[in-house]
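Researcher: I'm preparing a figure for a lab meeting and need a structural model of a single chain. I don't have an experimental structure, so a prediction will have to do for now. The sequence is pasted below. Please return the structure as tokens so I can convert it later.
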Amino acid sequence: MLTRRSFLTTAGILALGNLLSSCASSNVDLRVLLLQGSIPPQLLKAFRQNLSSKPSLDFKPQGQLKELFSLLETWQGKDKNETGVWQEIPKIPVINPPPPSLSDFVTLGDVWLADAIKKELIEPLNLTQIENWNQLPSRWQTLVKRDQQGQLQDNGLIWGAPYRWGTTLIAYRSDKLDWQPQDWSDLWDQRLSDRISVVDQYREVMGLTLKKLGQSYNTEKLDQVPQLKTELLALNQQVKYYSSDHYLQPLVVGDVWVSVGWSNEIIPLVTKNRNIKAVVPTSGTSIWSDVWVKPKAKESQNKLSETAKQWLNFCWQPQAAKLISLFADAASPMIDRIDKKELSSEVINNPLLFIDPAIFEQCEFLQPLSKQVEEQYISLWQDVRKSTHN
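Model: Understood. Here is the structure written out token by token.
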């Protein structure tokens, strides 16, 4: 999820960011660098109103996850050339030095956690005293429990606090098709030959192909799925464009009829364009999650300030969960913990947000792979892309 972008306009979030930023550069009680659009301004306002005291708050948005990861590296003085699998595109040059002051929390996508842990850019969180952590569904607790190499571990330390999630969807032009795609297998339909655009991420493309074959997104033994390469080659012939930045533009102009991409970018497009529809594949899809991480400090005691604890706890409260699900083009991990009567009809009646439980049960996070397995994925993907007709 390198380049997940928000269609929310920046004006509101920037205005509120300025409102919540401290006038002075020191004595700030809580500094947060957040992914632009991942927290609605309404939530920040509600947080401040819910505080009994009036601490100094500094919330600032950044445009992309890779910028936030780069800041984590900058604070630790790490070599930015040591990129991981999810840093496949060049970083944007730093134009406005110096970097901001070390933040209490930074938004990070779950697929970046392993790299951040291995490179010692973040430190674990002690969430045992955060009341709502125990209310967080086990799927999200499991996601952020890792060992020191970033691999999932049931009894591992907690490395992040999930606050927003979404999925990979199939978007399509209802005015171009006289049928409705429902599952990944529809991408191989000859009626879509040279009419598909897909995010340029091998884990996503190989994952949906594995799902089509009844396998997991996180399959480790690729050699035990003999049909995989044949299916990938066939899909490759269907795809007109691979792009993580511009996969939706061809859909908008009608150059392709189907696009595979991330829900937080597709949902607002569906809202604005009556000819574009989207579905969660019935066999299940990949899930992504934005999490709060704590940058590693030089002299850290792994303690959170009271204001920091209040912020994490607030993000999991029903009020925050409702605001995230309504205004952030994504869902809160606490959405299933809220009485449906309290949720907006816009959320309840949106199957892209309030996903059918039977389908959601089949959805998966993209788990970190061992180096050996990752090399198998990359090698196979490179072989498939060599045959591209694009």
